[in-house]
Amino acid sequence: MAEYVKTKVHNMICVKSIKNMLELFLLHLVSPPVAYSKSRMDTVTSYRMQHIHQVLTVEQLSRDLGLSQSTLKRLLQSHCGMTPIAYFGHLKTEEAK
Hints:
Shape: rod-shaped
Helix content: over 70%
Structural class: mainly alpha
Strand content: under 5%
Largest sheet: none
Distance between the termini: 73 Å
Order of helices and strands: HHHHH
Number of helices: 5
């Protein structure tokens, strides 16, 4: 019985370890490299500043930049901690100063 419990616990630990490694691997695949991500962020900011006085939706921006809406949202969230609307509002506020 003790051997059965030890085997069961060992198997559970192995499964959990494999699950954690798989999650890290998948996260690595989904997350773009920092340099690539930074250049994308620069492109987004530059584009938005060129069109600062226009009302643009997230859909329009993502289409014009060749990004999906979810990629644009993730990019801004990871770099600025803001949603697209909040970030673009921030840019407009900074431009007005």
